[in-house]
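To fix ideas, we quote verbatim a fold written out as tokens:
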Amino acid sequence: MSQGPISYKPTDGLSYDPSEPVYWDRSALAKEVTRAFEICHGCRMCFKYCDAFPTLFELLDKKHDGDVTKLGAEETNRVMDACFQCKLCEVQCPYTPRDKHEFQLDFPSWSTATRRSAPARRARASATSSSATRT
């Protein structure tokens, strides 16, 4: 069941500055990624750039009935891993900090932020899995 409408305005988790503690907060990042996915799903100007957007739209349209809150961590990682940092979406997006838009959307930055903890996340999952097997 959906949690209700997602605001397009930035959450308290918005940060593009690695010197800010909130930048490293995974739950803050998750709120911003959910918000970004909601905005991108509604707009779709970026569908023609990298595979991140068609992947996102297919997951939401065919699997989750348009509800971004139903995307799991692996699905989010799949979308973000498909971004190859060409930044064409950021250049074309009407909602960016560059344009001083109130939504402050910067998809490539969130892709990078999501990836920065991926190796550590996968290593922990692997360690947990192998320790559970030994028990």
The chain has six helices and no strands. Confidence is low (pLDDT under 50) at residues 120-132. The CA atoms of residues 50 and 83 lie 6 Å apart. Helices lie at 26-43, 52-63, 73-81, 88-92, 107-116, 118-134.
